What does this fold into?
Amino acid sequence: MSGHTDMVLVDDNGMRIDGRTATEHRPIKIEAGVLKNADGSAYVEIGKNKVLAAVYGPRECHPRHLQNPTKAIVQCKYNMQAFSVSDRKRPGTDRRSIEISKITAEALENVVLTELYPRASIDVYIEILQANAGTRCAGLTAASVALADAGIPMRDIVPAIAAGKADGHVLLDLNKEEDNYGQADVPIAIVPSTDEIVLLQMDGNMTREEFDKAISMAVNACHEVYDIQKDALKRRYSVQKGGESNE
Ligand code: CDP
It folds into this structure.
């Protein structure tokens, strides 16, 4: 997020370098139940981002000292593959992946009915196969579909998307160039049934008015992501009912 480039990110007609208007998200594809050995899983593409999520549980919580006698805990591991970015990413956990794992688990804990499973753990694994900005949102979007696919009781599923600012314009769902050279990035996740915000971060600078505009743009788009998540789960369910499965 340097805020400086000679590249024109938004042209005089308000068009972005990938042909989108300010309020358009990148194409989104979601498939539920893509892995045989996990309790639940999902694959998500948002533009050039490619993300897999797998869920195990509820199962006995390890390490045991993390067990909560009143409810289950949600543990998340966000991992970016070495080949997911153009400069090879050094494999393993780093500060960024610890942060993203934490905020993802906290967002999901808002919807999972954890009180039904004292002492248990619900484990969420997010693998970023290809990254192009917005991976934490794509990961969270995939994780909540995977949780639903695992049959984990939830009061809703969580869609996520970012809004931000580049070339002085408030834009939805920044791509890599807009993220790199833009002025702000604001990832958001909501509980659609109540419009509660369960994830909100901000990188860069915006005015109060721009921030309000970014939030309302992202909240609206979250409802679109939500519809695509529900469609993926309905497709998965109808395939199972028809006796077929992709397993
Ligand atoms: O992916 P997200 O926007 O949630 O997080 P970010 O930390 O703002 O990263 C933005 C983008 O930078 C990622 O999506 C990747 O495309 C890229 N990135 C990278 O190339 N190498 C890294 N080690 C981390 C991020």
The first strand starts at residue 28 and ends at 32. The helical segments are 95-109, 135-149, 176-181, 208-241. The CA atoms of residues 158 and 191 lie 5 Å apart. The first helix runs from residue 95 to 109.
